[in-house]
Design brief:
The complex is a heterodimer of chains A (138) and B (158).
Chain A (H helix, E strand, L loop, with lengths): L18 H18 L6 H31 L2 H17 L3 H8 L13 H10 L4 H7 L1
Chain B lengths: L1 H17 L2 H17 L10 H23 L7 H6 L12 H11 L3 H11 L5 H8 L3 H21 L1
Helix pairs in contact in B: 1-2, 1-3, 2-3, 3-7, 5-8, 6-8, 7-8
Classes of the chains: A mainly alpha (138), B mainly alpha (158).
Chain lengths: 138, 158
Amino acid sequence: MKSIENIPVKNPFKVPENYFEEVNRRIISATAEEDEKPVRHSIYRRMRPYMLAAAAFTGFVIISYFTARVFITGGKESEANLAETVSVAYLNDIDIYSIEESALDLELSDGLSGIKKSEIVDYLMLEDIKTEDIIEIL
Amino acid sequence: MIVEKYSSKLYWHIRRLVILHEDADDALQNTFINAWRSIGEFRNESALYTWLYTIATNEALNLINKRKRNSAVSIDDLGSYFENSHEGSTFFDGDEAEVKLQNAILQLPEKQRVVFNLKYYDDMTYEDMSKVLGTSEGALKASYHHAVKKIEKILTGS
């Protein structure tokens, strides 16, 4: 079968007559209305400094709590529970940078040796593979 | 004028993702309104065109996800889209081969569909696509290559 790249590209979708002239007018009109609206800072913007302070304080409390648990309760069982709690919290907050860091230690087969590990992670995410599965693979 | 220069390109990009004209119309307007609101945050690190494409892509994907949450039926081919809309197939004029191709494209994961459409229909460079999608060029090349293989496999199998 011919590759689709060798087949002329066609556009099967249609639009109503004079659509683009009409939609351009609507968009310009809508953006002009946006200009006339008074600037109001959102509640989020006004509360942001307080929220940042609260987040910093909460982070401090959480780190202190886990540190205290390790030193006060002691024992292998406590350490195992702590490790599990932290790893679950970690997985829930996983992001692309954490995945790429994990990929740094990944040993690649000869066929993949020329490819950057960050590119492999990017590709896996485009293939719609879930974050948790990528972590498991790594 | 930015609207006149980019509305057509952005419309077709959105339309190929959301399929229906009515949805593409909504998403296009939202794209320009959101761009207008965020113009203060636009930095000249990327071209205006790639920035607009990013907003348009996000609008289209948001609309698709919203449709999936609200729809009781699976929307994975053109027939489903047309059956569940007011416009039906009024604004679609493809032959049988085109219908098969569009259905095959709809089988791709959403992000891979975006990559395929940007390369196949818009002939966007991987460098620009990388700025639009925030993904490495290597991953995009691999993704497009596999998308083509998947589509060809679907078409030869049907």
